[in-house]
Amino acid sequence: MVMVWISCKVYPSEDKEKVRKAILNLFPDASLDDTDLGFEGEAGADRFCDLVRKQKILDSTRSTMFKGIRGRAIILHLNKQVAAVGKVSFTDPATILGTLQVTIDAGDPETVIDRIAPRTVDGEEVKVC
């Protein structure tokens, strides 16, 4: 199972409970700690993987994940407002109201990327035997 670390700053103009729900929409098994700045915690990636397939964004997810490789980790930034409605949307880390920062301790990043966002041909997932 792929584990992720979630970090999310909550700004004074935001409702903290709505931000918590946004995180749980994408990572329902997250164990979140309430910090002075927002939330931090760990979660599995199963729901995230399901949403990427359901939204048919395998190619953009794959590309974004490759761009986010930092050594053994993959760092992604997700839009909080879009997460509030249960969808995945990648964003720039400098977004005005911040992001959900997701760090995947990958060990072998390419293997993890192949699991979460496999290659596609004509929009269909390529099954490797």
Please, could you describe this protein's structure?
By secondary structure, this protein is an alpha+beta fold. The chain has one domain (3-120): 50s Ribosomal Protein L5, Chain: A. Helices cover 33% and strands 29% of the residues. β4 and β5 form a beta hairpin. The chain is globular and about 45 Å long. It starts with a strand and ends with a strand.
- Distance between the amino and carboxyl termini: 20 Å
Mean pLDDT value: 92
The top-level CATH class is Alpha Beta
Q: How many strands in all?
A: 8
Radius of gyration: 14 Å
The portion of residues forming beta strands comes to: 25-35%
Widest β-sheet, arrangement of strands? 2-3-1-6-5-4
The helix-and-strand class reads alpha+beta
The number of domains:
1
Classify the fold: give the CATH topology: 50s Ribosomal Protein L5, Chain: A
Largest sheet: 6 strands, antiparallel
- What's the helix count? 5
Estimate percent helicity: 25-40%
**How would you spell out the order of helices and strands?**
EHEEHHEEHEHEE
Morphology call: globular
Level-2 CATH architecture: 2-Layer Sandwich
**CATH 4th-level superfamily:** Ribosomal protein L5
